[in-house]
Design brief:
Number of helices: 5
Distance between the termini: 69 Å
Shape: elongated
Oligomer: single chain
Strand content: 5-15%
Largest sheet: 3 strands, mixed
Order of helices and strands: HHHHEEHE
Radius of gyration: 24 Å
Structural class: alpha+beta
Strand order of the largest sheet: 1-2-3
Number of strands: 3
Helix content: 25-40%
């Protein structure tokens, strides 16, 4: 409760000072260290991000990219792949899992 009562004037001022730099996300990313870059990518892409055939791929889109998704796909920067559905196990592929009477 005491934390809520604290004056956050300094924090708000710091955010106001940083606000003009937000449009330069590529510049911020370039200046960041490798750990910060990885943290940023993990925050933007909640599902694994893979790189194949000169294109990044993920299972879900970030809502922040929704308005630019067609442009991003056209430039071959990102592809949204549908995850594979959970398929049932085929007993023929895993003979040790299922025992059927009179089969052995």
């Amino acid at each position: 409760m005491n934390k809520l009562k604290e004056d956050d004037k300094d924090k708000r001022q710091k955010m106001r000072d940083l606000l003009p730099t937000l449009p330069d996300i590529p510049g911020i990313f370039e200046k960041a260290g490798i750990k910060d870059q990885h943290s940023f990518i993990r925050e933007v892409f909640k599902h694994p991000l893979t790189y194949k055939d000169d294109m990044c791929r993920t299972h879900t889109k970030n809502p922040a990219f929704a308005h630019n998704l067609l442009k991003i796909k056209a430039k071959r920067l990102l592809d949204i792949e549908q995850p594979l559905p959970d398929l049932p196990i085929n007993p023929m592929c895993y003979p040790g899992l299922y025992r059927f009477p009179n089969t052995l």
